[in-house]
């Protein structure tokens, strides 16, 4: 048993050590501050934060509807929302491309009517990241809404508070930690997004080339830079993991 | 503004069918065993569940009358003190109390002044900035009461307001609660399973058992003539169902009892446990009722021993420990029982 477990631990540890050992520490800072790296870092930050923000903005009402109301077809809606979690991201990207490219009906109409273009644009990268990240937020918040003591909402209503006041002043503060955890989780997922982004938004430096895309590209030309950028993603992931430890890893 | 609640409601296993009327300024205690539907009754009046049939009205306003009328919970102006208080854990005591006035459209500072004043009135003004988790049970109960009163409600509902308190705090909070309820102008419904609370706080009681109100009246009326095993147990008396014919009652199990006052037809009879005498041999003398049976169970209760007796009448006798020793009573022993006819109270079923 323990031997097999040790193999498993090694399986996770070795790639990490490999990455650290292959890193060229003397040039890491230089590699991270090149124009292309800085662009990728900046873009990643913008896109992932936007995706997390959109997830909170639209995911919160969605989680509320799933947890609290009895709209018909709720299981179907939930399945639809959670689909991106199991769908290969590249398939998600293809689907977005099919739906929102300039040649598709919806994409064409958005472009003609509002001048919006998602393919090969930063907006597209944000869209792709939101597509894969929002489900993480929604399930986290829906779970919190289900497990909170709903009698608090009843008590607030009996004090004369309307639905929106109850949600804003009672529900939201009570599920606050889960909202934060869900947002961080969605942000981390958006930061690491690769497949959907490169398929839908392309790999254009300064516009759609986020960190994972830059890593992939640099691997061909400058391995040191690719590893330096990988280290950034690694550190961010570790920080997220540690900060969410209590919420996700040590349940009960 | 009196409260009328005559309705039917099915919720899971519960089948609730009640008719309750609480006059203005009066306190009605709904007394009943766990699972009888007490909390659901309150929830229906408060508006957090809708009724299936009948109507609930407060003053002249219909609150719920399916299928046409349903006033939303937040518009009913009914204050609720919940069983475990349900103070909002992220708000201070003051913010909890100010929540209602804020929701009703008072400005933040006006709401805070009102809340501070109410906290002073319930005697915990100094704890205004404490979070609920820092409050003791008695303090939390007062905050909950202040919070319910802060909306200037037209009626007040209290769900087991004292159940979560320890014995010492309970007496004190009960006394204060009594004072506040006396000051409250609207109708109050108090749900409890403790007859002492009902006695101390309410003018009327309604006994709720398995979703039905089995008895109503003043506490004295209800306890003088219990109509169910539940009430008889509450006040610790023996309740017998039987058919009376003159001064003879034939119980459902075929035993007979002689009473002093004559009745006819189906009756209840109560026999105070202290009036049941026990003997080793067949007793002689005046008692009209005597029979032999066996001791089923002995229970020491303070300075008395409650002796549960076997068929034909499953009575409880209350005697002193000295008498138990003198008779050398043990569980399973044969024993003679006598009850004076004058000790039996009979009333129609």
Could you characterize what this model shows?
- Chain A has 14 helices and no strands.
- Chain A has helices at residues 2-22, 28-32, 35-68, 74-86, 89-100, 105-114, 122-147, 151-158, 163-174, 176-191, 195-200, 211-221, 223-243, 245-249.
- The mean pLDDT of chain A is 90.
- Chain B has 349 residues and is α+β, with helices and mostly antiparallel strands.
- Chain B has two domains: 3-233, Rossmann fold, CATH 3.40.50.300; 236-274 and 286-348, Beta Barrel (OB fold (Dihydrolipoamide Acetyltransferase, E2P)).
- The A-B interface holds A 149, 151-152, 154-162, 165, 169-170, 173-174, 176 and B 43, 46-48, 72-80, 82, 86, 88-90, 99-100, 103-104, 147-148, 150-151.
CATH homologous superfamily grouping of the largest domain in chain B: P-loop containing nucleotide triphosphate hydrolases
Q: Could you say which overall geometry of chain A the principal axes of the C-alpha atoms support? A: globular
CATH class of the largest domain in chain B: Alpha Beta
| Estimated radius of gyration of chain A | 21 Å
CATH class of chain A: Mainly Alpha
Count of DSSP-assigned helices of chain B: 9
Q: What characterizes the major β-sheet of chain B?
A: 6 strands, mixed
Strand order of the largest sheet of chain B: 7-8-9-3-10-11
Number of domains of chain A: 1
- Uncertain segments of chain B: none
What's the average pLDDT of chain A?
90
Number of strands of chain A: 0
Give the helix/strand layout.
The complex is a heterodimer of chains A (252) and B (349).
Chain A: H1 2-22, H2 28-32, H3 35-68, H4 74-86, H5 89-100, H6 105-114, H7 122-147, H8 151-158, H9 163-174, H10 176-191, H11 195-200, H12 211-221, H13 223-243, H14 245-249
Helix pairs in contact in A: 3-7, 3-10, 4-7, 7-10, 8-9, 10-13, 12-13
Chain B: E1 3-11, E2 14-22, E3 27-31, H1 38-46, E4 53-58, E5 61-65, E6 69-70, E7 78-81, H2 93-103, H3 108-121, H4 137-149, E8 155-159, H5 167-183, E9 188-192, H6 195-201, E10 204-209, E11 212-218, H7 219-224, H8 229-235, E12 238-251, E13 256-271, E14 276-279, E15 289-301, E16 304-309, E17 316-319, H9 321-327, E18 334-339, E19 345-348
Parallel strand pairs in B: 3-9, 3-10, 7-8, 8-9
Antiparallel strand pairs in B: 1-2, 1-4, 4-5, 5-6, 10-11, 12-13, 13-19, 14-18, 15-16, 15-18, 16-17
Helix pairs in contact in B: 2-3, 2-4, 3-4
């Amino acid at each position: 048993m323990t031997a097999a477990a040790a193999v498993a631990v090694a399986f996770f540890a070795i790639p990490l050590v490999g990455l650290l050992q292959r890193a060229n520490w003397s040039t890491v800072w230089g590699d991270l501050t090149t124009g292309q790296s800085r662009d990728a870092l900046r873009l990643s930050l913008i896109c992932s934060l936007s995706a997390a923000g959109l997830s909170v903005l639209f995911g919160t009402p969605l989680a509320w509807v799933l947890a609290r109301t009895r709209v018909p077809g709720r299981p179907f809606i939930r399945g639809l929302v959670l689909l991106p979690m199991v769908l290969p991201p590249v398939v998600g990207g293809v689907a977005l491309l099919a739906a929102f490219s300039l040649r598709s009906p919806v994409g064409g109409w958005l472009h003609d009517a509002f001048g919006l273009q998602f393919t090969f644009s930063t907006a597209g990268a944000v869209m792709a990241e939101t597509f894969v990240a929002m489900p993480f937020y929604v399930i986290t918040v829906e779970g919190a809404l289900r497990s909170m003591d709903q009698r608090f909402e009843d008590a607030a209503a009996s004090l004369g508070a309307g639905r929106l006041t109850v949600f804003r002043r009672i529900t939201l503060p009570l599920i606050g930690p889960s909202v934060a955890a869900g947002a961080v989780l969605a942000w981390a997922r958006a930061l690491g997004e690769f497949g959907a982004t490169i398929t839908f938004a392309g790999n254009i430096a300064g516009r759609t080339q986020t960190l994972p895309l830059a890593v992939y590209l640099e691997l061909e030309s400058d391995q040191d830079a690719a590893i330096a950028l990988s280290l950034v993603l690694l550190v961010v992931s570790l920080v997220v993991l540690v900060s969410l430890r209590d919420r996700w890893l040590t349940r009960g | 503004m009196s409260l009328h609640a005559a309705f039917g409601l099915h919720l899971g296993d519960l089948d609730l069918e009640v008719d309750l009327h609480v006059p203005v300024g009066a306190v009605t205690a709904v007394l009943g065993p766990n699972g009888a539907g007490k909390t659901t009754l309150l929830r229906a009046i408060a508006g957090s569940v809708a009724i299936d049939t009948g109507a609930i009205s407060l003053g002249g306003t219909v609150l719920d009358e399916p299928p046409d009328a349903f006033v939303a919970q937040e518009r009913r102006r009914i204050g609720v003190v919940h069983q475990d208080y349900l103070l909002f854990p992220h708000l201070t005591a003051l913010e909890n109390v100010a929540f209602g006035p804020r929701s009703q459209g008072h400005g933040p500072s006006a709401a805070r002044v009102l809340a501070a004043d109410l906290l002073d009135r319930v005697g915990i003004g100094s704890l205004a900035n404490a979070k609920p988790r820092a409050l003791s049970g008695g303090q939390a109960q007062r905050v909950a009461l202040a919070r319910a009163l802060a909306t200037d409600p037209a009626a007040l509902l209290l769900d087991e307001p004292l159940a979560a308190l320890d014995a010492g705090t309970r007496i004190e909070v009960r006394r204060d609660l009594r004072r506040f309820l006396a000051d409250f102008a609207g109708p109050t419904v108090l749900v409890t399973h403790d007859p002492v609370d009902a006695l101390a706080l309410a003018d009327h009681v309604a006994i709720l058992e398995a979703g039905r109100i089995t008895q109503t009246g003043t506490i004295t009326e209800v306890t003088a003539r219990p109509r169910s095993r539940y009430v008889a147990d509450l006040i610790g008396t023996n309740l017998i169902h039987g058919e009376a014919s003159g001064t003879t009652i034939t119980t459902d199990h075929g035993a007979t009892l002689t009473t002093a006052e004559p009745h006819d037809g189906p009756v209840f009879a109560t026999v105070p446990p202290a009036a049941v005498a026990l003997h080793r041999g067949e007793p002689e003398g005046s008692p009209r009722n005597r029979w032999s049976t066996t001791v089923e169970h002995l229970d020491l209760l303070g300075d008395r021993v409650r002796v549960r007796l076997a068929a034909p009448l499953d009575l409880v006798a209350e005697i002193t420990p000295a008498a138990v020793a003198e008779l050398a009573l043990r569980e399973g022993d044969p024993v003679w029982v006598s009850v004076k006819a004058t000790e039996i109270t009979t009333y129609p079923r």
